[in-house]
Specification:
Beta Polymerase, domain 2; two-stranded antiparallel ribbon; seven-stranded mixed β-sheet; 19 helices; alpha+beta
Length: about 375
Protein backbone atom coordinates (compact mmCIF):
# COMPACT_ATOMS: atom_id res chain seq x y z
CA UNK A 1 0.00 0.00 0.00
CA UNK A 2 2.84 2.40 0.86
CA UNK A 3 5.26 3.05 -2.04
CA UNK A 4 8.77 1.76 -1.54
CA UNK A 5 10.27 5.26 -1.71
CA UNK A 6 8.12 6.37 1.24
CA UNK A 7 8.41 3.22 3.36
CA UNK A 8 11.56 4.37 5.23
CA UNK A 9 9.73 7.52 6.34
CA UNK A 10 6.76 5.52 7.59
CA UNK A 11 8.93 2.88 9.30
CA UNK A 12 10.92 5.57 11.05
CA UNK A 13 7.77 7.12 12.50
CA UNK A 14 6.27 3.78 13.53
CA UNK A 15 9.50 2.88 15.39
CA UNK A 16 8.87 5.90 17.60
CA UNK A 17 5.61 4.29 18.71
CA UNK A 18 3.49 6.84 16.86
CA UNK A 19 0.22 5.43 15.39
CA UNK A 20 -0.27 5.98 11.67
CA UNK A 21 -3.38 5.23 9.61
CA UNK A 22 -3.60 5.26 5.82
CA UNK A 23 -6.93 6.78 4.78
CA UNK A 24 -8.92 7.86 1.75
CA UNK A 25 -7.88 7.19 -1.83
CA UNK A 26 -4.74 5.18 -1.08
CA UNK A 27 -6.78 2.56 0.83
CA UNK A 28 -9.66 2.61 -1.64
CA UNK A 29 -7.39 2.21 -4.65
CA UNK A 30 -5.32 -0.51 -2.95
CA UNK A 31 -8.52 -2.50 -2.47
CA UNK A 32 -9.27 -1.98 -6.18
CA UNK A 33 -5.82 -3.20 -7.18
CA UNK A 34 -4.86 0.30 -8.34
CA UNK A 35 -1.90 2.52 -7.51
CA UNK A 36 -2.10 6.16 -6.51
CA UNK A 37 0.49 8.90 -6.19
CA UNK A 38 -1.33 10.65 -3.33
CA UNK A 39 -0.76 9.00 0.04
CA UNK A 40 -2.86 10.34 2.93
CA UNK A 41 -1.88 9.40 6.48
CA UNK A 42 -3.44 10.52 9.78
CA UNK A 43 -2.10 10.34 13.29
CA UNK A 44 -3.10 11.37 16.81
CA UNK A 45 -0.72 14.31 17.20
CA UNK A 46 0.71 17.27 15.33
CA UNK A 47 3.02 15.72 12.71
CA UNK A 48 5.41 18.65 12.81
CA UNK A 49 6.43 17.45 16.28
CA UNK A 50 8.00 14.30 14.85
CA UNK A 51 8.62 15.20 11.18
CA UNK A 52 10.35 18.53 11.65
CA UNK A 53 9.84 21.96 10.13
CA UNK A 54 11.67 21.53 6.82
CA UNK A 55 8.54 20.33 4.98
CA UNK A 56 5.43 22.18 3.78
CA UNK A 57 3.15 22.71 6.74
CA UNK A 58 -0.49 23.79 7.13
CA UNK A 59 -0.83 25.04 10.72
CA UNK A 60 -4.65 25.30 10.73
CA UNK A 61 -5.19 21.64 9.91
CA UNK A 62 -1.77 20.49 11.16
CA UNK A 63 -0.79 18.80 7.90
CA UNK A 64 2.77 18.10 6.77
CA UNK A 65 3.37 17.46 3.04
CA UNK A 66 6.42 15.89 1.47
CA UNK A 67 7.26 14.50 -1.96
CA UNK A 68 9.47 11.55 -2.72
CA UNK A 69 9.93 9.39 -5.81
CA UNK A 70 7.01 11.05 -7.59
CA UNK A 71 4.63 10.43 -4.68
CA UNK A 72 2.85 13.04 -2.58
CA UNK A 73 2.64 12.16 1.13
CA UNK A 74 0.40 14.07 3.52
CA UNK A 75 0.46 13.37 7.24
CA UNK A 76 -2.37 15.09 9.09
CA UNK A 77 -3.63 15.18 12.63
CA UNK A 78 -6.94 13.40 13.08
CA UNK A 79 -9.89 15.72 13.53
CA UNK A 80 -13.64 15.98 13.45
CA UNK A 81 -15.60 18.72 11.69
CA UNK A 82 -18.67 20.47 13.08
CA UNK A 83 -20.88 23.53 12.63
CA UNK A 84 -20.69 23.79 8.83
CA UNK A 85 -21.16 27.27 7.31
CA UNK A 86 -21.04 26.94 3.55
CA UNK A 87 -17.79 25.13 2.81
CA UNK A 88 -16.30 26.03 6.18
CA UNK A 89 -16.57 24.13 9.42
CA UNK A 90 -15.23 24.21 12.92
CA UNK A 91 -12.55 21.62 13.65
CA UNK A 92 -11.60 19.71 16.74
CA UNK A 93 -8.50 17.51 16.88
CA UNK A 94 -9.12 13.98 18.10
CA UNK A 95 -7.00 10.99 19.05
CA UNK A 96 -9.28 8.21 17.84
CA UNK A 97 -9.51 7.13 14.17
CA UNK A 98 -13.21 6.27 14.65
CA UNK A 99 -13.84 9.97 15.36
CA UNK A 100 -11.97 11.08 12.23
CA UNK A 101 -13.62 8.84 9.63
CA UNK A 102 -17.23 10.18 9.93
CA UNK A 103 -16.22 13.57 8.46
CA UNK A 104 -15.31 11.97 5.13
CA UNK A 105 -17.68 12.27 2.20
CA UNK A 106 -18.24 8.76 0.82
CA UNK A 107 -17.95 5.33 2.42
CA UNK A 108 -15.28 4.21 -0.06
CA UNK A 109 -13.13 7.11 1.15
CA UNK A 110 -13.86 6.44 4.84
CA UNK A 111 -11.75 3.31 5.26
CA UNK A 112 -8.58 3.42 7.35
CA UNK A 113 -5.69 0.99 7.53
CA UNK A 114 -3.65 0.78 10.72
CA UNK A 115 -0.06 0.69 9.46
CA UNK A 116 1.24 -0.53 12.83
CA UNK A 117 -1.24 -3.37 13.41
CA UNK A 118 -1.99 -4.21 9.78
CA UNK A 119 -5.75 -3.93 10.31
CA UNK A 120 -8.60 -2.18 8.50
CA UNK A 121 -10.95 0.18 10.33
CA UNK A 122 -14.16 0.30 8.31
CA UNK A 123 -17.17 1.49 10.35
CA UNK A 124 -19.32 2.38 7.30
CA UNK A 125 -18.96 -0.70 5.12
CA UNK A 126 -16.65 0.99 2.66
CA UNK A 127 -14.81 -2.19 1.69
CA UNK A 128 -18.07 -3.83 0.60
CA UNK A 129 -19.00 -0.73 -1.38
CA UNK A 130 -15.60 -0.83 -3.11
CA UNK A 131 -16.17 -4.49 -3.91
CA UNK A 132 -19.72 -3.82 -5.15
CA UNK A 133 -18.76 -0.65 -7.06
CA UNK A 134 -21.15 1.59 -5.12
CA UNK A 135 -20.84 5.26 -4.14
CA UNK A 136 -22.80 6.35 -1.08
CA UNK A 137 -22.37 9.09 1.47
CA UNK A 138 -21.13 8.58 4.98
CA UNK A 139 -24.33 9.14 6.94
CA UNK A 140 -27.61 10.59 5.72
CA UNK A 141 -27.06 12.01 2.20
CA UNK A 142 -29.37 15.04 2.48
CA UNK A 143 -27.53 16.13 5.60
CA UNK A 144 -24.07 15.58 4.11
CA UNK A 145 -24.83 17.53 0.93
CA UNK A 146 -26.45 20.37 2.88
CA UNK A 147 -23.26 20.62 4.94
CA UNK A 148 -21.27 21.17 1.75
CA UNK A 149 -22.87 21.38 -1.71
CA UNK A 150 -19.44 20.91 -3.26
CA UNK A 151 -19.73 17.23 -2.35
CA UNK A 152 -22.27 16.85 -5.17
CA UNK A 153 -19.63 17.86 -7.71
CA UNK A 154 -17.16 15.51 -6.03
CA UNK A 155 -19.77 12.77 -6.34
CA UNK A 156 -19.82 13.37 -10.09
CA UNK A 157 -16.03 13.18 -10.31
CA UNK A 158 -15.75 10.01 -8.24
CA UNK A 159 -18.50 8.34 -10.28
CA UNK A 160 -16.43 9.06 -13.40
CA UNK A 161 -13.07 8.26 -11.83
CA UNK A 162 -14.09 4.95 -10.27
CA UNK A 163 -16.81 3.98 -12.77
CA UNK A 164 -19.03 3.15 -9.77
CA UNK A 165 -22.81 3.23 -9.57
CA UNK A 166 -24.34 5.80 -7.22
CA UNK A 167 -26.53 4.55 -4.39
CA UNK A 168 -30.20 5.41 -4.92
CA UNK A 169 -30.66 7.56 -1.81
CA UNK A 170 -27.39 9.37 -2.55
CA UNK A 171 -28.33 10.23 -6.12
CA UNK A 172 -31.83 11.32 -5.08
CA UNK A 173 -30.40 13.67 -2.44
CA UNK A 174 -27.84 15.05 -4.90
CA UNK A 175 -30.54 15.76 -7.49
CA UNK A 176 -32.79 17.41 -4.90
CA UNK A 177 -30.03 19.69 -3.60
CA UNK A 178 -28.12 20.35 -6.82
CA UNK A 179 -29.39 23.95 -6.86
CA UNK A 180 -27.01 24.63 -3.98
CA UNK A 181 -24.02 24.22 -6.29
CA UNK A 182 -24.96 27.53 -7.92
CA UNK A 183 -24.21 29.26 -4.62
CA UNK A 184 -20.60 28.10 -4.59
CA UNK A 185 -17.71 30.41 -5.46
CA UNK A 186 -16.69 30.14 -9.15
CA UNK A 187 -13.07 30.05 -8.03
CA UNK A 188 -13.87 26.82 -6.20
CA UNK A 189 -15.93 25.29 -9.01
CA UNK A 190 -13.53 26.02 -11.88
CA UNK A 191 -10.64 23.71 -10.84
CA UNK A 192 -13.02 20.80 -10.19
CA UNK A 193 -14.89 21.31 -13.47
CA UNK A 194 -11.58 21.63 -15.35
CA UNK A 195 -10.35 18.42 -13.77
CA UNK A 196 -13.51 16.57 -14.81
CA UNK A 197 -13.66 17.93 -18.37
CA UNK A 198 -9.97 17.33 -19.13
CA UNK A 199 -9.91 13.80 -17.75
CA UNK A 200 -13.12 12.09 -18.88
CA UNK A 201 -15.03 11.64 -22.18
CA UNK A 202 -17.44 14.54 -22.86
CA UNK A 203 -20.45 12.26 -23.28
CA UNK A 204 -19.76 10.63 -19.90
CA UNK A 205 -19.34 14.03 -18.25
CA UNK A 206 -22.59 15.31 -19.72
CA UNK A 207 -24.42 12.14 -18.65
CA UNK A 208 -23.30 12.36 -15.02
CA UNK A 209 -23.91 16.12 -14.83
CA UNK A 210 -27.37 15.64 -16.32
CA UNK A 211 -28.10 12.69 -14.06
CA UNK A 212 -27.24 14.73 -10.96
CA UNK A 213 -29.24 17.79 -12.14
CA UNK A 214 -26.03 19.82 -12.38
CA UNK A 215 -26.55 21.22 -15.89
CA UNK A 216 -28.82 24.01 -14.69
CA UNK A 217 -26.81 25.30 -11.70
CA UNK A 218 -23.52 25.05 -13.55
CA UNK A 219 -24.38 26.06 -17.12
CA UNK A 220 -27.96 27.37 -17.08
CA UNK A 221 -29.03 24.43 -19.25
CA UNK A 222 -32.41 22.91 -18.48
CA UNK A 223 -32.33 20.29 -21.20
CA UNK A 224 -29.50 18.83 -23.23
CA UNK A 225 -29.52 16.25 -25.99
CA UNK A 226 -26.38 14.26 -25.22
CA UNK A 227 -24.55 13.61 -28.50
CA UNK A 228 -23.79 10.09 -29.66
CA UNK A 229 -20.79 11.09 -31.78
CA UNK A 230 -17.46 9.36 -31.34
CA UNK A 231 -15.52 10.41 -28.27
CA UNK A 232 -14.32 13.97 -28.75
CA UNK A 233 -11.47 16.01 -27.34
CA UNK A 234 -11.14 16.20 -23.59
CA UNK A 235 -10.67 19.94 -23.39
CA UNK A 236 -12.59 23.04 -22.39
CA UNK A 237 -13.12 24.35 -25.93
CA UNK A 238 -14.72 21.15 -27.20
CA UNK A 239 -16.90 20.96 -24.09
CA UNK A 240 -18.01 24.59 -24.49
CA UNK A 241 -18.96 23.98 -28.13
CA UNK A 242 -20.87 20.81 -27.21
CA UNK A 243 -22.85 22.77 -24.61
CA UNK A 244 -23.67 25.43 -27.19
CA UNK A 245 -24.76 22.93 -29.85
CA UNK A 246 -26.78 20.51 -27.74
CA UNK A 247 -27.93 22.58 -24.74
CA UNK A 248 -30.98 24.82 -24.56
CA UNK A 249 -29.26 27.91 -23.13
CA UNK A 250 -28.33 30.43 -25.88
CA UNK A 251 -26.39 32.37 -23.25
CA UNK A 252 -24.27 29.41 -22.15
CA UNK A 253 -20.96 31.07 -23.07
CA UNK A 254 -21.63 33.89 -20.63
CA UNK A 255 -22.22 31.27 -17.95
CA UNK A 256 -18.80 29.86 -18.76
CA UNK A 257 -17.32 33.35 -18.43
CA UNK A 258 -18.92 33.56 -14.97
CA UNK A 259 -17.24 30.23 -14.17
CA UNK A 260 -13.91 31.87 -15.11
CA UNK A 261 -13.33 29.98 -18.35
CA UNK A 262 -10.62 31.87 -20.32
CA UNK A 263 -12.07 34.68 -22.44
CA UNK A 264 -9.91 33.73 -25.43
CA UNK A 265 -11.41 30.25 -25.30
CA UNK A 266 -14.93 31.69 -25.09
CA UNK A 267 -14.22 33.88 -28.13
CA UNK A 268 -13.09 30.85 -30.13
CA UNK A 269 -16.14 28.86 -29.00
CA UNK A 270 -18.40 31.73 -30.02
CA UNK A 271 -16.98 31.73 -33.54
CA UNK A 272 -17.19 27.94 -33.87
CA UNK A 273 -20.83 28.03 -32.77
CA UNK A 274 -21.61 30.81 -35.25
CA UNK A 275 -20.12 28.67 -38.04
CA UNK A 276 -22.12 25.62 -36.95
CA UNK A 277 -25.30 27.68 -36.85
CA UNK A 278 -24.52 28.83 -40.40
CA UNK A 279 -24.09 25.21 -41.54
CA UNK A 280 -27.57 24.64 -40.14
CA UNK A 281 -29.07 27.58 -42.03
CA UNK A 282 -28.14 30.59 -39.91
CA UNK A 283 -26.29 33.79 -40.78
CA UNK A 284 -22.86 33.56 -42.36
CA UNK A 285 -20.06 34.47 -39.91
CA UNK A 286 -17.29 36.88 -40.94
CA UNK A 287 -14.11 35.44 -42.46
CA UNK A 288 -15.67 32.04 -43.06
CA UNK A 289 -13.48 31.65 -46.15
CA UNK A 290 -10.39 31.90 -43.96
CA UNK A 291 -11.55 29.35 -41.41
CA UNK A 292 -13.82 27.21 -43.60
CA UNK A 293 -11.88 23.94 -43.45
CA UNK A 294 -11.36 24.20 -39.71
CA UNK A 295 -15.06 24.96 -39.15
CA UNK A 296 -16.08 21.99 -41.30
CA UNK A 297 -13.87 19.81 -39.12
CA UNK A 298 -15.55 21.23 -36.04
CA UNK A 299 -19.01 20.53 -37.46
CA UNK A 300 -18.02 16.94 -38.20
CA UNK A 301 -16.47 16.55 -34.76
CA UNK A 302 -19.59 17.59 -32.87
CA UNK A 303 -21.91 15.46 -34.95
CA UNK A 304 -23.55 17.94 -37.35
CA UNK A 305 -25.39 16.17 -40.20
CA UNK A 306 -22.93 16.94 -43.00
CA UNK A 307 -25.22 15.44 -45.66
CA UNK A 308 -27.78 18.10 -44.75
CA UNK A 309 -25.05 20.75 -44.84
CA UNK A 310 -23.99 19.73 -48.37
CA UNK A 311 -27.61 19.80 -49.55
CA UNK A 312 -27.96 23.31 -48.19
CA UNK A 313 -24.55 24.44 -49.46
CA UNK A 314 -23.56 22.42 -52.54
CA UNK A 315 -20.73 24.88 -53.20
CA UNK A 316 -19.26 24.50 -49.70
CA UNK A 317 -15.85 23.41 -50.98
CA UNK A 318 -15.71 25.83 -53.92
CA UNK A 319 -13.15 28.63 -54.02
CA UNK A 320 -13.92 32.34 -54.64
CA UNK A 321 -13.99 33.19 -58.35
CA UNK A 322 -13.12 36.82 -57.58
CA UNK A 323 -10.31 37.23 -55.07
CA UNK A 324 -10.62 39.69 -52.21
CA UNK A 325 -8.14 42.27 -53.50
CA UNK A 326 -9.71 42.24 -56.98
CA UNK A 327 -13.19 42.54 -55.49
CA UNK A 328 -12.07 45.63 -53.63
CA UNK A 329 -10.80 47.19 -56.89
CA UNK A 330 -14.00 46.35 -58.76
CA UNK A 331 -16.16 47.93 -56.08
CA UNK A 332 -14.02 51.06 -56.09
CA UNK A 333 -14.23 51.29 -59.89
CA UNK A 334 -18.01 51.13 -59.67
CA UNK A 335 -18.03 54.06 -57.25
CA UNK A 336 -19.24 52.04 -54.29
CA UNK A 337 -18.03 52.91 -50.79
CA UNK A 338 -15.56 50.42 -49.33
CA UNK A 339 -17.75 50.36 -46.26
CA UNK A 340 -19.98 48.07 -48.32
CA UNK A 341 -17.11 45.67 -49.06
CA UNK A 342 -17.75 43.23 -46.22
CA UNK A 343 -21.50 43.15 -46.90
CA UNK A 344 -21.00 42.53 -50.64
CA UNK A 345 -18.31 39.91 -50.02
CA UNK A 346 -20.65 38.09 -47.61
CA UNK A 347 -23.50 38.05 -50.15
CA UNK A 348 -21.24 36.74 -52.92
CA UNK A 349 -19.81 34.08 -50.61
CA UNK A 350 -23.24 32.93 -49.44
CA UNK A 351 -24.55 32.62 -52.99
CA UNK A 352 -21.46 30.72 -54.08
CA UNK A 353 -21.79 28.29 -51.19
CA UNK A 354 -25.46 27.79 -52.06
CA UNK A 355 -24.43 26.93 -55.61
CA UNK A 356 -25.87 30.03 -57.31
CA UNK A 357 -22.43 31.32 -58.30
CA UNK A 358 -20.31 28.81 -60.18
CA UNK A 359 -18.36 30.94 -62.65
CA UNK A 360 -16.75 34.34 -62.78
CA UNK A 361 -19.55 35.51 -65.04
CA UNK A 362 -22.11 34.53 -62.39
CA UNK A 363 -20.15 36.51 -59.80
CA UNK A 364 -19.77 39.59 -61.99
CA UNK A 365 -23.47 39.61 -62.87
CA UNK A 366 -24.43 39.43 -59.19
CA UNK A 367 -21.87 42.11 -58.34
CA UNK A 368 -23.36 44.42 -60.96
CA UNK A 369 -26.81 43.81 -59.55
CA UNK A 370 -25.64 44.56 -56.00
CA UNK A 371 -23.82 47.71 -57.05
CA UNK A 372 -26.83 48.99 -58.95
CA UNK A 373 -28.88 48.78 -55.77
CA UNK A 374 -26.27 50.58 -53.65
Amino acid sequence: MIPQSLQPVIDGILKKGIPLFAVGGVVRDYLRGKKTRDIDIVTDRNPIDFIGEHFDYNPRYQIVTLNSGGFNLEIARMRRDFAYTGRHSGIEFVSNIEEDLPRRDFTVNAIAYDLRKGQYIDPFGGRKDVSDGILRTVGEPMERFREDYFRILRLARFALKLDFQIDRSTIEAARALSHGVEELNPGLLKPEINKIIRKYPPQSVLSIFDGLNLMKPLFGIGKICIPTVAEGDRDLLYFAVILGVYGDNPDVLNRLVALQFPKTLIGKAEYVLSAIRFFQGGDIPPKLETYRDEMIQWAEKVGVDMNAVHRLYPGLYSEPVIKSRELKSLITEKGISLRKLQEIRGILTLNRLKGFIKTRTDAENMLDELCSKS
